[in-house]
Amino acid sequence: MSMDGLPKELERLVAEARGAGDWGRPADYIPELAKVDPAQVGVALCLADGTELGAGEADRPFSIQSISKVFSLAAVLGRLGDDLWRRVGREPSGTAFDSIFLLEHENGRPRNPFINAGALVTTDALLGGREPRQALSEIMHLVRAAAEDDDIHIDKAVAESEKATASRNMALLYYLQSHDNLLNPPEMVMGTYAHQCAIEMTCRQLARAGRMLAMLPGVPAMISPLRARRINALMMTCGQYDGSGNFAFRVGLPGKSGVGGGILLVAPGVASIAVWSPGLDGYGNSQVGTWLAERIAGYTGWSVFAP
Ligand code: GLN
Hints:
307 residues; alpha+beta; five-stranded antiparallel beta sheet; three-stranded antiparallel beta sheet; Beta-lactamase
């Protein structure tokens, strides 16, 4: 199918989303995120032929939050390889992103690297015996190189805001520690994790960083094709937490959400897509962003479940 009509369709979808009025609510458990105006919507795409498209607030930076878990996972797999899987599983959890429930039943081994418990283990593994700034600069290097853009930074106010209200993640960390599944002090892992979550990116930068997962031709070879395929599988099965099944049903593409309202989507070999709208649904995934992703997949026919 020709994508000639896509730029116009993106404008139309953004206008429709703006008119709909029901934005969902921005995350408020991180006070700094609650300040963001929910009435915003952005989208950006990178296509296999090198075309880049954007509509709405495609150039407004937002807090990528849990989308950073994709980048920390890619970095740690590069460093440790499959050893990571001794400490964290690869199954969907069916529980909320910040749940502690399954950890108790499964001896402190988180179900997957995208729920908070699993992401905290991933960050702990990335730290190894190093200082937080070394692990963070490794993530920043990966993100900037993948996006081919050095103008990507961490919003310190968001990181401090998360650290100041981190009781639940601290509880997860102490629980992991009690099962000998934490190498570093909980405060150190929490600080590193809060900073990686506070990376600010625009839809355009995020779509560019996602090209490595979509394995688009001519993009910086940051990760091997096998690793990209496996990360995509985890995004498909676990990327939206207990909303992952419904997301697969509605959108049909691997995606990773963040409570900042962003979603990174991958159409392997075809496109990398970033959508953003700060209001969330009950699972902590962007409400309008999911709708937009569904409509883009519907218009283009992109799906990992169809030819
Ligand atoms: N930093 C957030 C947290 O740990 C990330 C959660 C998310 O984006 N789902 O609570």
